[in-house]
Design a protein that fits this description.
The protein is an alpha/beta fold. It has a domain of 158 residues: P-loop containing nucleotide triphosphate hydrolases (Rossmann fold), CATH 3.40.50. It has ten helices and ten strands. α3 packs parallel to α6 and α4 packs across α6.
Amino acid sequence: MSDILLEMEGVVAGYGDTHVIRNISLRIPKGERLAIVGRNGVGKTTLLSTIMGQTRQHAGTISLKGTTINTLASHQRARLGIGIVPQTRDIFGSLTVEENLVAGLRNGSTIEEAYDLFPRLKERRSNGRRQLSGGEQQMLSIARALLGKPEIILLDEPLEGLAPVICEMLMEVFHKLADKGHTIVLVEQHVGLALKFAERVIALDQGKIVLQEKTAKLTGDRSKLDRHIGLSAR
């Protein structure tokens, strides 16, 4: 993987005048599986939100396929190929499953692509948000993002609060997407699952990158990761 899809250089960003991430420099090649880990409140969600254009960027540059996107709004970044599945899921509560999917259609995508990936959504296509389980809501959020045909997809703690069997199913989906060449950035508190999925892991602390390492080098000894983030790689 030599083609750099997304690059951040010296990025400082946050909310209002508050700096949450500081001096972030990062290169993500096309097709990479990247995991971002760290304790709560260290800037993981803010990092993804900044890539998506949802924070105030104070310094640095963000480039997609060599083009600077600093000044672009979120919807413009989405059209260029950045997709995000937020921690809050953000599906439309007043719409059915199928209507939510229709809202995500772009670039020649079809609803059947979502149903092929998540057959359960087809069974629930006429249901609203309140009639869906947490796992079904997460499937819908992921499917809708994928219908935008993103070149890079940002997943913000997609397993949070879900039953183990649903977590396992979603991780299988992420592996399938990665095998098809999707570039995936995964923020996840389940560190063990994140390491099994990713080729490279980044640890954040106090808004800064404190560790970048190939996961293969951490397989036999995760003490370096634990020292940086204070978590046991479960």
